[in-house]
Each structure stands twice: as structure tokens, then as C-alpha cells.
Amino acid sequence: MNKELFYKIIFLLFFFGGVMVIFSIEKKIKVQLPESVNVVAEYNKEDEEKYAASIDSDRKKIEIVINDNKMIPDVINVNKNDKVSLIVRVEEGYHNLYLDIYHIGTNYIPTNKKEILRFDATMSGQFKFFSHTYRYKKEPEGKLIVR
Amino acid sequence: MKKINLLFENIRENRITILFFVFIFTYLIIIMRNAFKIEFFLDDYFFLKVGKASDLADFLNFFSPYKDYFYRPIPTEIFYYFINLTNRNLLFAHSVMFITYFIGLIFLYKSSFFISKNKIFSYFLVFFYSINFTHVFQLYQVATYIEICLFTFLSIAFYAYLKKRILLSILFFVFALMSKESAALFPILIIFYQVFFIKKIDKSFILKIIIFMIISAIVVLIFKHATSQVMMIDTYKIILDPKLIINNSVWYLLWSLGVPNFIPNYVQSIFFQPTMDFWKLFNSNDIKLFIYSFIIFYAVFIPSFFITFIETNKKIKYLILILGLIFIFYLFISPTVPTIHRWMVRLTVPVVFTSAIYAFVTYILYSKEKFYRFISFVLIFLYFIMSTFGIMIHESSGLFLLNTRTINNFKSFIQANQEDLAKFDTIYFVDSQPGDTFGGSEELKNMLGSEYFTDTFFPGENKKIIYGHEQNMIPEGSFVIYSGDIY
To answer: Which of A86, B7, B372, B398 satisfies CB 3.0 to 4.6 Å to A117 for a cystine?
Structure first.
């Protein structure tokens, strides 16, 4: 057999071997990964914005305005199992917003900027949310009521 | 006028080389554009603190070996001295890192061209080396400028040696030694070159090599003295355990061949199945595409390697060259193999030699008939795809953007509480929840370089810093920062 032809066959065999490995991985992934598993965390601002736009479409949107003394509104009512997007806008000062029950919060937000805090209201009850501006002063706070 | 004409003639003659480098540099700047906004963190705060000099005596003191940390004055004290002069400008710091790396690449090309007398091979070598994803770490984190300096100074020293400009070579060799102690292995690289390529060992060579070795010995002694304290730290301690040495050696080689840095977390041993979490990685499209391009690249590279070997008339020489390159790879990685601390950043210089293997095989294919040349282009294309995704996934796995976000949150927090913070002498970082690991005070301690961040964030103040995971009691009169407020 022609040497070059032999080498071409070798290359093809290896190449298809590689493709077969990929197919077997794909098969294995389908078995190992049910659809609900978490996506590997990768921080990318553009992706995050696109992702935010796609997931906020079916969420209950509530806007909270924070200034140095209070939160408006300071009582939020949602139903159990609601998917909520809290749009936190800072009118005055430098604030974040913490939701104690879920151990989640926004970053520090400067004046006239906003950030979205998303959560699923899986527990019913009354929960506190507050701003961590400075712990030795009175912090603006509010109440989340899940019915 | 004559000089200008000569310059234009030179540019005309080397236009392909110039275009090649313009392509490589542009590609690297575009794909690694996020590097320019990576904040200072970890060791940076320590180096920012020690990289200060108010007069010439302070500046000269940077070179003093009487320190209780690694003796690497050029990429640490001196580099950070200039960063301090620019008011800790990130763009300046990262631009210097990229420019130094680019200079190193140019000298790598020049050295390769000098030895091989072949431009195409040299292009391949620089291409395979420059876009290798292992460089993400040293180009993103300012503190790892150590590795870039080592690579660039050694490249210049080697090129100067090839051009028989020994004094210049010695000068840059000393600079390399002042960047990282593993430069002390450079004389062995020269011996390898002399034996394999020049094949002549005369008196003049022996004299030169003795000079290089004496300089190495002096710096190793200084380093040994300077690091006696650092070596006490468990992760840097030399442990002559064969299992650890073999394990590290295997992982460093696998990393240099394209295995991602996070794989050891999921695959405990190459003889066992990966953990269940390994399959979750495939949820990320970038990781999936990287692994698939890696598989296809090697499905083409492995037969290429064997076919080029079978086809060559100089099998012994071929084999010796490949084994020699692997030997030098291990030579440069050897000082860190017997330590627990395993880090991809240490591959900066060793990857030159694994890239030379890729370049060698690809060049042999390229120089043959049509079909083989086609395969060489396939290899280049697949490597380009693999490296592009490799850079993207290591940017994520290195957590550089996440760390930057945390530091920026911390800056905002301090800005918001500036007046109140000024009233307290002690800052206490408390875990948001007891026992927090990620996002807790322990993580913050690493991120902020223990207490060294105070010099950057509270210049001139003498603040005491306490981390909650180390001390449960909050001292009276402390300003308490909840770790969760920063993350």
C-alpha cells in the first residue's frame, strides 16, 4: 500500500477516534446531568445582563427606593413561591440591601444607580430587609411579607 | 536620511515578521483585554507596601538581601515602586506586564531564528508559546510579574549569549536572577545548547560557563539566606516525598500540554474515574468547547508526532531533541516540584520547551508535500481554537474578575464609611455566618493580603486588623465589617 495513503488512513482513524470520544462524553453528560443542575459560575458582565433580561421577564418586579433615612415602600407583599426581582434604586447616599432570610444582598449602590436582587419566595412569613450602610447608625429597613 | 532609508529597507525586508508580531500582540490584547482592569489583591498589597522609597538610600535598600521574604527585587520592590509613583495606576501596571512579555516573545523569536536559521519554525514556536493559556495567570495578576520578568530577561540573556555578547548576557542573567531564583538553572540550558547544537567544548566555553555558575551560586546563597523564614511555611517547604514529586511532575506536564488548571480538583488520579462534579463542568459551553478542541487537537497531533518520527532519517537525533526538550522542561520546574504549593504560573519558562515540540512537529509537516502541509495548518487552527477557549476558561477559573469585583466593593464600602472608619483604630471582619469559608473573613484575609491592605486604603494610619475566623471576641471600640457586605 502507498505510504501516504496509509498515513491518511491513520490520521482519519485518530480523527474519528477523537470524534467518538466526544460522542461518548456527550452521552455520559446526558446520563450524569439532569436538567436542573446548577450552571458553573462564570462572571461576565455582558452575559449577566443578557441573562438578567431573559429571566426577569417571568418574574414579579418590585421597585424599592432607598435614601439615607428610609426605604420606599418599606413593606413588600408577595405570594409564596413567587419569583421576585427587587429593583433596588438608591436616591441618596451609598447603600446596599440585605435580605436576611436568604442571606443575599446587593452590592453597594451609589446615588442614582440601581441593582436587581432576585429570589424565590419559598418560605412564608415576615422577614426583615435592611441596608448595611453603617452599623452604628439607624439603618433604613423594611419588611417582606410572604403569604 | 541614509539611516531613515536603512530603517525602511529593514522594515520592508522583515514585513512578514512585523505583521506576524502585530497579529500575535493584537490577538493577545483583545483576548486578554479584561486583564487591564484586574485590581490589586493578595500579595500585591504587601509589595505595594515594601515598594516605597523616599530617597536613594531607600531605593538601594531594595537590593539588600537582608529580608524575611523572597529575594526578587526587580519584579517586586522596583516594579511596585514605579506603580506607587503612578498613584497605583492599574493601566500602567498591566501595560508594563504586557510590554515586558512582548519583548520576551521578540527575543524568543530572535533566539529561535539564530539557532534554527528558519523563520517559519520560529514563527511556529512563538505562536505555540505566546497564545498558550498558561500565561493567563501571569498576565492578569500583577504580583506574578515575577514570572514574566524571568522569561523576558532569560530570553534576552540567551540571545545575547548566542550573539557572543557575553557581558550583556551576564547583565540580563543577573536581572533574571533578581526576578526569580530558578534563573540559576540557565547555565544548564547553555550547556545543552553547546553540546547539542555547537558540539564543541573548548576552554573559552568552560570559562564562560564557570562565570555563569559562580553568579548562580552567589545568588542561590543570597536566596537561601533570604528565604530561611519563608521556607518555614508549610506550603513552600521542600518535602522529598516520591509520591508528591511524581504527582506534581505529572500535573505540571499535563498542564503544559493543555489540561486545564482546575482538573486536579475533579480527577484525583489519572488511573481513576473523575468525580461526579467533573461532569457538571460541561454545563459551561466554553469548557465544553475547550475540551472538545483539546481532544481533536491531540487526535491530529499524536499521529503527526509518530509519522514525523517514522519518516525522519535521523531518528536518534529526533528522539534526543524531544527528550532534551522534556529534560529542560523538568529542569526549570524542578525547584518547585518537591513542594505542596502547585501553581500553573510556574510554567512560564518551561512551556517554551513543550511549545518547541509542537513547533518542531508542525514544521516538519509543513516542510513536506501538500497533504502534510495541510495537516500542519489543521494543527495550527486547532491549537488556536483550543488556546482561545483555554484563555477564556482560565480567566473565569482564576477568579480574577470575581476578586476585582470584591475589591471594588470593598473600596465602595470604605468610601461610604470613610468618616466613621477614621474614628476607629481597629477593624474587625466578621463572618456573615459562622464558619463561612468562601466569602467569609478567611477569604477576605487572603484577598486583602492580611493587614497589608491598610497601607493602600488607610495611608498614614495605624489600624489594627482582626479577622473573625482567627479571633471570636470583637474587641471594644472596633469598627465591625460584615464579610457579606463586601462580597
So the answer is: A86
